[in-house]
Amino acid sequence: MPDLEAFEDRLKKFKYRGKDVSARRQQRIAANLQLRKAKKDEQTLKRRNISLFSNDLFSQEPVKQASLILEDIIKGVNSSDPMVCLMATQAARKMLSQERNPPLKSIIEAGIIPKLVEFLKVSLLPNLQFEAAWALTNIASGTSEQTQAVVKGGAIQPLIELLSSPHMSVCEQAVWALGNIADQEFKDTLAFAFHSNTQEAEAGDGPAFRDNIISNNAIPKLLDLISTNIPVTFLRNITWTLSNLCRNKNPYPSQEAVLQILPTLSELLQHHDNEILSDTCWALSYLTEGHNDRIHHVVAMGVLPRLVELMTSPELIILTPSLRTMGNIVTGTDQQTQMAIDAGMLKVLGQLLRHPKPSIQKEAAWAMSNVAAGPKHHIQQLITCDLLPPLVALLRNAEFKIQKEAVWTVANFATGATQNQLAMLVHSGVLEPLLNLLTAPDLRIVTIILDIVSFFLQEADKMHEKQKLCLLMEEVGGIEKIEALQLHQNCHISHSALNIIEKHFSGEEDGDSLPNPGLRV
């Protein structure tokens, strides 16, 4: 018989057994780092190669072009001649804008950052402010240490002041720079995820830089830049920067900051531009990671119907974060989950479980598992929306990482279902693909499946249907697989398999009944 205490410990990872989802969230962060890294690498590359996007500055007489080496740049930025400073700063910016391997380290080691920060404050020379902000933007797009060099150089406050510049080009470049500084948290997360033998994530500099930006009143200035006639390219970068300010949960951004940003995010969610929609959805996904009160702030904005609509988008950059956000919301309270269901989430989830992209299948299965972890009327709505057939298809044919999410869904469903709902689950065809996964190399998944099987048999016994279930398991080769696991090198797995065989397939009935491990509070 499987150890009930061990089963209870695993149930604590479900939504309503202790609400300890931190471990699963860390797994999800690690699993999606490559997707986010690719997304942010693309954005960073775009920022290093921007063209002159506005003629509010460059309709003036252009600066004389000159090819300067690093030594010339160092001399130039320290000159007392403003035009020489401008030419040197522009040369530095062009070096830093190389598509491949820009010399960020060399520029930092040359001690140029303090001069660039100083140039941000020269309001009489907006061209110089622009070039300096652009150079700092590209430095801040580098490694964590390179971003730190920009912050330690004192760039945050003058960059925020530039958000009030009368020159749109200067404003936009300051927005980019602040976005790259706030993006530090992503770099810290990436470094942590691939750091071996690390047990706990360190806070890093990401939240400190983010909070530094927020505490210097950047959010109202960013929001004031948004108008009906703002160029879409500018609005994209404001949205991206706001998204980065929503990031990091160690600690979370302040409630005051979140409440400042949310109304604008709600408006941006109605925009037609794909990049703006993508970053808005990512912002909402960051804000819904964690505590129920944070989910409440987002849900209270009335954005759920729009998020469900965006879950039908053919654009992966929109679909992924909108699905992530809704998946986060259904980790919340029963009421918050019901609001997601009422918004039509489950009606869309079926097609996402069948999506051609494995990453979407995995996210959809994870979202379904959290709905399945809810009360019986949520489980019934999964059945009503005909989500059992695609669940069985994932168990049977999907990649293993998706099959694992599907196994969790079955476990959550089974331990919270009524007897009638449990019977529908068994008769949906879930048993054969579930038992086939007993040969998987993942010990945790094998253990969960054995616990599910034990629970199925226990409940079938209560309904006087155990003999039928045993015959069904025999027909699909399940008994042989369980018997083979009696010799498994993992003691818990072998013990669980032995208990199932002895209790339910030995030909002897001892009358004992396994206490229901699915009781919920």
| Strand residues, percent | under 5%
Assign the structural class, choosing from mainly alpha, mainly beta, alpha/beta, alpha+beta, or little secondary structure.
mainly alpha
Shape: elongated
Using only C-alpha atoms, the radius of gyration works out to 28 Å
User: Main beta sheet, described?
Assistant: none
Number of separate strands: 0
Instruction: Note the gap between the termini.
Output: 24 Å
**What is the share of helical residues?**
55-70%
Count of DSSP H/I helices: 32
Uncertain spans: 1-50, 188-203, 509-521
Explain the layout of strands and helices.
Layout: H1 4-11, H2 22-31, H3 33-48, H4 55-58, H5 70-77, H6 82-96, H7 104-109, H8 113-119, H9 126-140, H10 144-152, H11 156-162, H12 168-182, H13 184-193, H14 206-215, H15 218-224, H16 232-245, H17 255-268, H18 274-287, H19 292-299, H20 304-310, H21 316-329, H22 334-342, H23 345-353, H24 358-372, H25 376-384, H26 388-397, H27 400-416, H28 419-436, H29 443-462, H30 466-475, H31 478-485, H32 491-504
Helix pairs in contact: 5-6, 6-9, 8-9, 9-12, 11-12, 12-16, 13-14, 16-18, 17-18, 18-21, 20-21, 21-24, 23-24, 24-27, 26-27, 26-28, 27-28, 27-29, 28-29, 29-30, 29-32, 31-32
Task: Describe what you observe in this structure.
The protein is mainly alpha-helical. 69% of the residues lie in helices and 0% in strands. It contains 32 helices and no strands. Helix 24 (358-372) runs parallel beside helix 27. It is elongated, with a radius of gyration of 28 Å.
